[in-house]
């Protein structure tokens, strides 16, 4: 094993110092567009293209304790040759195992680990992304090793069998994953001429090494064909100046071969025209009742400044008043709904709507689909709405303007992938920009969301099945949709409350920063009474118009028994459901909210832009004070919680171990079965009785920290006091 001695390190520093001096007079590359950055972003950025056409983004943060880098190659499982499913993934494994300059297989990994770093990679349908982080001072040595993977990798034959087994292990580990199992079914019913229909992960069978077809030769051929500098995007984040980073990166990565590889669109449709509409029924591993409706649509990634997929995903996935989900909940048919673009490829995408059904919703699946298609028809009838688009654009602009710093390793990985899709000026904001309203694109997208273009997938334990998927052995069935059933889905539904969203009352308007002459370094106790304490602190570090409000309600009625824990969990779930119609627009506006059980009570948390926080807090506290739950919502939410607890057996073993450790170590934590038993034994009357006891013994401790002035303390204390009983509180039982 090669070691990196101090003398070598000192020589490397000297070399990079010389390079830095040579570049000291360098400036932003002439004629090279530079990315627009957030006013709240104090990083330095430089975009450049190396002589070999490798596009690079440099990020400088002189105070960074860690450096990071990512290189994304525009190649993935969709490029696997026929008969070699998983080859792109296998190459990702083999690439790390030695280069001509650093031949020891573990040299890169050892160097990263010795200097406080981490490394990983992933393969998706279109991308293979490699990334690492490391203590900032050791970036030169790490980058030197990293670059060689793309200059002169060895792909030593001695490691072929080992890495084939590693790929097989990943495949075996996913056999119980419902997401991978669902993808296997989807790929089995796709157009076989589309690359997405092929198995992606790989296995010992698909990667078999035979004298007639040696896997290493296929690997080398794939690398030579697809790993080209013009298909790569590199992001480097370090404490060095931009000139120093450029001097470091340029010689290391300019040697990456440029084979001028072209990337062609995929002409084949994902589904053959005659195959849709289609109905799938799937038996999942988990206790699941899910309806997913997917529509093949155009590829809108080049129109990211218009982003019609985000516009429509926001409307269909909305959870506020008048939404599809609110109507489904009102009829007792569903608990959850999500919508947006999932799968995407060069030439198309899938727009998917996923609905978590109740037992009644499963029995009335055609009614659920009728409401879904009625909602989509309502959107088409109303046409594109510039008001709603501009509202989303405003929220996206606020999000970018007050962007918070991300973990460097995650940041560089995401940026490197996005550089393939966005113009250089938009690299930093491409995912959030909505600057070009295009009613034509929205109408075109809406026209594709019709029953005749739908793949409907129903996942539940008692699904009628007649076959198995090829790689994950998932029981499923596939059938065309009859004309009679299609008529039920498209029957007009005029008598619903479904409508377009109202204007969002929670969008921040005042984003100014408060300034007080004297501010304590740490939060101070600003209010105290027999049952309430308020701590206050004003932020002077981050300089953003945000704040966080935490109210910790403690009561003797939580923590001692599984029955108390179950009551607290069910109560908070019912509260969140009751306020969802008005808290969802707040969430869209950058106001995060949660109410949850803790060891000795429940907590209420609000965070985000401070401008409309008081309005949200007032409505939440009023809703808690006047909460009244219907029997149907109680039954449905309790059933959903029980199903979730029973699904713990489908978690990965590591997750189950962590759950068991939490139960053993933390006060008030109980295992799945005691909670299930307590929930099933509880009725709404018993819960109402517990709620009265909880608030009768409750105290409140509040932390108000962020872009606030001290006068907020009195207003918050006054509103919280309305929930608390008078007099001295009962003593809390000790934590165990």
UniProtKB/TrEMBL annotation:
Cofactor: Zn(2+)
GO molecular function: metal ion binding; metalloendopeptidase activity
Functional description taken from the UniProt entry: Endopeptidase that degrades small peptides of less than 7 kDa, such as glucagon and insulin.
Enzyme class: hydrolase
Family designation: Belongs to the peptidase M16 family.
Residue intervals of the Peptidase M16 middle/third domain: 400-676
GO terms under biological process: proteolysis
The organism of origin for this protein: Haliea salexigens
Enzyme Commission number: 3.4.24.55
Protein name from the UniProt record: Protease 3
């Amino acid at each position: 094993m090669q070691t990196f001695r101090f003398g070598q390190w000192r020589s490397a520093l000297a070399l990079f110092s010389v390079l830095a001096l040579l570049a000291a007079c360098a400036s932003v590359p002439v004629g090279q567009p530079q990315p627009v950055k957030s006013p709240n972003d104090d990083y330095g950025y430089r975009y450049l293209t190396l002589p070999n056409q490798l596009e690079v983004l440099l990020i400088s943060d002189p105070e960074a304790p860690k450096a990071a880098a990512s290189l994304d190659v525009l190649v993935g499982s969709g490029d696997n040759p026929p008969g070699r499913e998983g080859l792109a993934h296998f190459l990702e494994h083999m690439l790390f195992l030695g280069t001509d300059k650093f031949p020891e297989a573990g040299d890169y990994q050892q160097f990263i680990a010795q200097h406080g770093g981490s490394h990983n990679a992933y393969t998706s349908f279109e991308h293979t992304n490699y990334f690492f982080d490391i203590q900032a001072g050791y970036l030169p040595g790490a980058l030197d090793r990293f670059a060689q993977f793309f200059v002169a990798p060895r792909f030593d034959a001695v490691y072929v069998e080992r890495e084939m087994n590693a790929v097989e292990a990943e495949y075996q580990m996913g056999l119980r994953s419902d997401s991978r199992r669902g993808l296997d079914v989807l790929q089995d019913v796709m157009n076989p001429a589309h690359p997405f229909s092929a198995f992606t992960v790989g296995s010992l069978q698909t990667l078999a090494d035979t004298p007639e077809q040696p896997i290493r030769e296929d690997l080398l051929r794939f690398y030579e064909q697809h790993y080209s500098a013009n298909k790569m995007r590199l992001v480097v984040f370090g404490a060095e100046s931009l000139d120093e980073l450029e001097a470091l990166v340029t010689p290391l990565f300019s040697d990456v071969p440029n084979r001028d590889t072209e990337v062609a669109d995929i002409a084949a449709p994902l589904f053959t025209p005659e195959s849709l509409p289609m109905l799938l029924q799937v038996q999942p591993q988990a206790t699941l009742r899910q309806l997913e409706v997917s529509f093949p649509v155009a590829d809108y990634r080049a129109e990211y400044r218009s982003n019609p997929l985000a516009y429509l995903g926001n409307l269909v996935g909305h959870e506020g008043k008048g939404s599809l989900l609110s109507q489904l909940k009102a009829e007792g048919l569903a608990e959850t709904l999500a919508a947006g673009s999932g799968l995407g490829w060069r030439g198309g995408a899938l727009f998917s709507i996923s609905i978590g059904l109740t037992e009644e919703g499963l029995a009335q699946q055609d009614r659920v689909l009728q409401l879904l298609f009625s909602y989509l028809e309502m959107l088409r009838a109303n046409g594109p709405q510039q008001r709603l688009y501009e509202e989303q654009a405003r929220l996206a602009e606020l999000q970018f303007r007050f962007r918070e710093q991300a973990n460097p390793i995650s940041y560089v990985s995401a940026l490197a992938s996005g550089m393939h899709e966005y113009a250089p000026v938009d690299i930093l904001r491409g995912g959030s920009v909505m600057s070009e309203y295009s009613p034509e694109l929205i109408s075109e997208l809406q026209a594709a969301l019709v029953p005749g273009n739908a793949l409907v997938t129903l996942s539940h334990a008692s699904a009628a099945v007649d076959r198995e998927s090829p790689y994950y052995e998932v029981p499923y069935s596939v059938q065309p949709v009859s004309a009679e059933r299609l008529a039920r889905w498209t029957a007009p539904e005029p008598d619903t409350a479904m409508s377009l969203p109202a204007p969002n009352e929670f969008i921040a308007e005042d984003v100014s920063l408060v300034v007080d002459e004297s501010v304590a370094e740490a939060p101070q106790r600003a209010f105290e009474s027999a049952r309430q304490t308020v701590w206050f602190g004003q932020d002077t570090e981050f300089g953003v118009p945000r704040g966080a409000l935490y109210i910790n309600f403690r009561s003797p009625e939580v923590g001692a028994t599984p029955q108390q824990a179950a009551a607290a969990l069910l109560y908070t779930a019912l509260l969140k459901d009751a306020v969802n119609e008005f808290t969802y627009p707040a969430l869209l506006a950058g106001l995060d909210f949660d109410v949850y059980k803790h060891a000795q009570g429940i907590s209420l948390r609000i965070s985000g832009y401070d401008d409309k926080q008081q309005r949200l807090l007032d409505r939440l506290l009023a809703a808690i004070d006047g909460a009244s739950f219907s029997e149907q919502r109680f039954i449905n939410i309790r059933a959903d919680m029980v199903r979730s607890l029973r699904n713990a057996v489908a978690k990965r073993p590591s997750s189950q171990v962590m759950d068991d450790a939490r139960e053993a170590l933390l006060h008030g934590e109980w295992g799945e079965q005691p909670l299930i038993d307590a929930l099933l034994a509880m009725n709404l009357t018993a819960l109402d009785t517990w709620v009265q006891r909880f608030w009768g013994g409750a105290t409140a401790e509040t932390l108000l920290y962020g872009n606030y002035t001290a006068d907020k303390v009195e207003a918050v204390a006054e509103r919280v006091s309305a929930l608390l009983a008078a007099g001295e509180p009962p003593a809390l039982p000790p934590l165990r």
